Amino acid sequence: MPRRSFFPNPDNKPAGFSPATRAGDLVFVSGQVGVDAKGTLVGEGDCGAQARQCFANVNAALNAAGATMSDVTKITAFLINRDDYPAYADARSEAFLDSGPASSTVFISGLVGPKFLIEIEATAVTA
Predict the structure, then answer these.
(1) Which residue among 27, 31, 102, 103 is buried most deeply as judged by most CB within 10 Å?
(2) Whether the predicted pLDDT of 120 surpasses 80
(3) Which residue range is the domain that position 63 belongs to?
């Protein structure tokens, strides 16, 4: 089954990876951080604001690949600070109004940028 890459912002194509990759009915969204379409950090020092931007970015990547947030079956969040979990959980509840997908949260020592507090990746199934 061939895979296709999708870029929600055609003017900002990262090198070496795709924000979303689709193979058949499966859509895989690369880890998204709290930057807007212009690459500006949203919510410096505020995990909740960054998480909301991460989910907005996940949604944009899904839409580019022909999927929606309601198609998401699994998310994984990577957080720097354990104390930020409640802010992330609130943002997750806003992103998924129903029971939501399967979810894992991993606490790590750092992300690709020192101001990033969270990164979220997703898998969706469209059928």
Answers:
(1) 27
(2) yes
(3) 28-125
